């Protein structure tokens, strides 16, 4: 599975689609450091801007950060729970909620996770944030990465295959 490639993402329209007008969606965007760590995890952009003020200055800020070390945009908020038959995950994407159920034993059930994209100099990478260990600042890791828990990041994980399809539907490309 190719999780990183050069494409021209329309950041403003992708963010707008990700939020979908849902004031309750836990949207954030965070700048990344050179080693893909998130300096705040709460999102420096969130500290400066609300969804209502995502104007030209906000997107200028994002474009500057994309050209530096990149940004991470959460597109999907996910929660999971064990069931007698396997696991059920609820995935919130803007104003839409999807459910994914599996009986697969190779799916790590988590209480909370997020999935999104890293944008850096025209390269888009699909991935998630994972804990850096010992409750340090989470960092971005692409699917198939050996960072963090391989079971969680595996490209063979059926949940991740479902998530990748959702991510691709949320990304808006420039013509």
Give your account of this protein's structure:
- This protein has one domain.
- The mean pLDDT is 81.
- The two termini are 24 Å apart.
- The chain contains 5 helices and 8 strands; from the N terminus they run βαβααββββββαα.
- The protein has 175 residues and is of the alpha+beta class.
- A hairpin with a 2-residue loop joins strand 3 and strand 4.
- Helices cover 25% and strands 31% of the residues.
List keywords for this structure.
175 residues, alpha+beta, 8-stranded antiparallel sheet, 25% helix
Can you describe this structure in just a few lines?
The protein is α+β, with helices and mostly antiparallel strands and 175 residues long. It has helices spanning 11-19, 44-48, 56-67, 150-153, 158-170; strands at residues 4-6, 29-31, 71-83, 86-93, 96-102, 113-120, 123-130, 139-142. The protein has one domain (4-170).
What secondary-structure arrangement, pairings included, does this model have?
Layout: E1 4-6, H1 11-19, E2 29-31, H2 44-48, H3 56-67, E3 71-83, E4 86-93, E5 96-102, E6 113-120, E7 123-130, E8 139-142, H4 150-153, H5 158-170
Antiparallel strand pairs: 1-7, 2-3, 3-4, 3-6, 4-5, 6-7, 7-8
Task: Outline the biggest β-sheet.
Answer: 8 strands, antiparallel
Hey, roughly how much beta strand do the residues contain?
25-35%
Structural class: alpha+beta
Mean pLDDT: 81
Number of strands: 8
Uncertain residue segments: none
**What is the oligomer described by this structure?**
single chain
**Rg from C-alpha positions?**
16 Å
What is the global morphology?
Answer: globular
């Amino acid at each position: 599975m190719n999780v990183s490639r050069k494409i021209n993402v329309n950041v403003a329209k992708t963010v707008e689609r990700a939020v979908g007008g849902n004031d309750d969606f836990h949207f954030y965007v965070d700048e990344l450091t050179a080693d893909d760590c998130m300096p705040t995890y709460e999102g420096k952009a969130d500290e400066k801007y609300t969804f209502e003020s995502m104007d030209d200055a906000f997107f200028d800020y994002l474009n500057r950060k994309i050209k530096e070390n990149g940004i991470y945009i959460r597109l999907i908020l996910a929660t999971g729970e064990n069931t007698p038959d396997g696991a059920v995950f609820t995935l919130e994407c803007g104003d839409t909620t999807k459910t994914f159920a599996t009986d697969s034993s190779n799916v790590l059930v988590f209480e909370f996770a997020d999935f999104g994209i890293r944008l850096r100099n025209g390269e888009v990478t699909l991935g998630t944030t994972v804990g850096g260990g010992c409750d340090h600042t989470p960092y971005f890791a692409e699917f198939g990465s050996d960072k963090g828990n391989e079971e969680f990041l595996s490209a063979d994980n059926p949940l991740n295959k479902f998530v990748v399809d959702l991510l691709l539907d949320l990304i808006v490309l420039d013509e």
